[in-house]
C-alpha cells in the first residue's frame, strides 16, 4: 500500500472531507523547461509536419449512407443556387434581353454540356423535391428512416434525370 492511500485510510473525517474537496491543492506536476531558438523551433515544426502521415480515413472507412445523402443534398443545393444565380445575373435590368437566350443556346450547341446541365438540374430538382417531400413526414428521425427518405430521394432524382435527358 502506498503512502497516500495509507494516509487517506488513517485520516479523520474532517481530513477526508478536506482531501475530497481540495485535491488540486495536493497535486504537483513536474515541468521541464527547454530554451530553444526560434530557428530551431521552426525547423522542428517543419520536421514534425513532414513526418506526419496523411489520414487515410476516406479510403479505409465505409461512408454512411446518411452521410452520402447529406453530401448529395448540399452539392445539389449548391448546383441549383449556382444555376439560378447565373440565370438571374444574366437577366438583370440594363443587360440586353438577348443575353440569357444566347447563353442557353450556347449550352445547347454542345451536346455533352447540354446533357450534363439538363441531367444535373433535373437530378437536383428531383432529389431535393423528393427528399423535402419525405423528410418532414418521417414518424421518427432515426437512421433507418433517414436511409429510407434518402433512398426515395435518390430514386426520385434519378427518375427526373432520366425523364429530362432521354424524353425531353
Task: Give me some keywords for this one.
mainly alpha, 71% helix
Mean pLDDT: 81
Largest beta-sheet characterization: none
Radius of gyration from the alpha-carbon trace, in angstroms? 31 Å
Which percent band covers the strand fraction? Answer: under 5%
Distance between the first and last residues' Cα: 84 Å
Q: Would you identify the regions where 5 or more consecutive residues have pLDDT less than 50?
A: none
SS elements, strand count? 0
Count, helices: 8
Supply the helix-strand structural class: mainly alpha
Taken in chain order, the helices and strands follow as: HHHHHHHH
**Helicity range of the residues?**
over 70%
Principal-axes shape call: elongated
Question: Any overview of this molecule?
Answer:
The structure is a single chain. This protein is an all-alpha fold and 168 residues long. The protein is 71% helix and 0% strand. It is built from eight helices and no strands. Helix 5 (65-90) packs across helix 7 (111-134). The mean pLDDT is 81.
Amino acid at each position: 500500500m502506498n503512502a497516500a492511500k495509507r494516509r487517506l485510510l488513517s485520516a479523520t473525517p474532517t481530513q477526508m472531507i478536506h482531501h475530497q474537496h481540495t485535491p488540486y491543492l495536493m497535486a504537483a506536476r513536474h515541468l521541464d523547461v527547454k530554451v530553444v531558438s526560434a530557428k530551431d523551433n521552426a525547423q522542428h515544426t517543419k520536421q514534425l509536419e513532414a513526418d506526419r502521415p496523411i489520414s487515410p480515413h476516406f479510403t479505409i472507412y465505409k461512408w454512411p449512407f446518411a452521410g452520402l445523402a447529406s453530401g448529395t443534398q448540399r452539392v445539389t443545393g449548391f448546383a441549383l443556387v449556382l444555376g439560378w444565380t447565373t440565370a438571374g445575373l444574366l437577366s438583370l435590368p440594363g443587360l440586353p434581353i438577348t443575353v440569357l437566350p444566347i447563353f442557353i443556346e450556347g449550352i445547347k450547341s454542345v451536346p455533352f454540356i447540354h446533357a450534363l446541365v439538363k441531367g444535373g438540374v433535373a437530378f437536383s430538382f428531383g432529389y431535393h423535391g423528393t427528399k423535402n417531400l419525405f423528410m418532414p413526414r418521417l414518424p421518427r428521425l432515426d437512421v433507418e428512416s433517414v436511409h429510407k427518405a434518402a433512398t426515395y430521394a435518390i430514386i426520385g432524382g434519378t427518375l427526373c434525370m432520366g425523364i429530362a435527358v432521354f424524353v425531353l
